Amino acid sequence: MKTYYLLLPLLFINTINIGCSSNPYGDSYDVADTRKVQTVNYGVVLSAKPVNIEGDKGSSAVGTIAGGAVGGILGSKVGGGSGSDIAAIGGAILGGVAGNKAAQNITKRHGVNLTIKLDSGKIISVVQEVDPNMIFRVDQQVQINQQGSTARVVPLY
After folding, report:
1. DSSP sequence for the chain
2. What is the pLDDT of residues 60-100, one digit of tens each?
3. Most exposed: 26, 96, 118, 133, by fewest CB within 10 Å?
C-alpha cells in the first residue's frame, strides 16, 4: 500500500513535466540557442498548410512506464493469490497502454508546413508549431533563420 502512495506523486509530476514543453514558436528560443550564429535567408510563402505534430516519443515511454506501474499496483489489490497476480499483470498492461496514449495526446501540437521560395530561387519547406500571433499567407515576405538543420520562419511586417 505504501508503494502506491509513493508512485502517485511521481506520476503527477511526470504528467506535469510532459505537458510543460518549451515554446516552439518562431519567436521563442531556448537558452542553448542564444549567442549562436544563424544563417538568414529571405523569401516568399508559396503555401501554408496545417499539419499535426505528433506526440514526443520520449514522453510516451515515461507515460507507459508510469501507467504500467500504477496499473500493476492497483491490479494487485484485486482478489487474492493467483487471481491477484493475474490482475496485477492485466493492470500493468492496461495502465501502460493508457499512460502511453495520454503522454502522446498531451504532447500533440498543431503545426504549419510552409513552402517558401527563397530570394535565391531555391524552394524549401519548414514545419513549425502554429503560433496564433504569427499568421502566414501566400505571397507574404518572410525571414528564415537557420542554424544547422534547424530553421525558424518569421513574417516580415
Report:
1. -HHHHHHHHHHHHHHHHHH-----STT---GGGTT---EEEEEEEEEEEEEEEPPPHHHHHHHHHHHHHHHHHHHHTSSSTHHHHHHHHHHHHHHHHHHHHHHHHHH-EEEEEEEEEETTS-EEEEEEE-BTTB---TT-EEEEEEETTEEEEEE--
2. 565 566 666 666 566 566 655 656 666 667 766 776 666 66
3. 133
